[in-house]
What we know:
single chain; mainly alpha; rod-shaped
Amino acid sequence: MSSQITLKVSQDVAKEMPMVDLAFNVLRAVNTPMYYRDLMQEIAKIKDISDEQVMQVIAQVYTEINIDGRFACVGNNLWGLKRWYPVERTEDAMGGNTKHPRIINDEDDDDMDDETLFADEKDDDFDVVDDDTEAFDADADEVEDDAEEEIEEELSDDLDDDLDDEDAADDEDMDDELDEEDDEDDDDK
Length: 189
């Protein structure tokens, strides 16, 4: 990018700002996706850092941009702001019929801060997690109950088998004792 970018923050504030936030402000100012190398060059110009310093942080900044929910990779190492791209749920959007992503003008929400813009999204995320957690807990309880029932059945079966074996052994002992008594009675006669 050869043109001068005008940020909505002072040069002193921009120099102290984290690089990922500076990347956000640069993309917001140009209002168009940028290649990562060009974005890093703009950040280096604003922060007045050398190429050697850029090489030391280039991977870290890439990782931060990749993780940060405000950014979207919209091509081969081409980065934009996620809010520029509406989520379309039609089959045309999924089919890949569009050659270029639609960019929404960012000027409408410049006077609003990010917390205000994304407040609804934050609330929705927690509800989904809570629902998932409740479903997981219910499944875990069901599995635990099934396991307890299975163990109880096995113990009951084992106990029944042991009792049957003892009864059979007792019956044999009784038969042996009766046979011995009969033998003694026969001897006495």
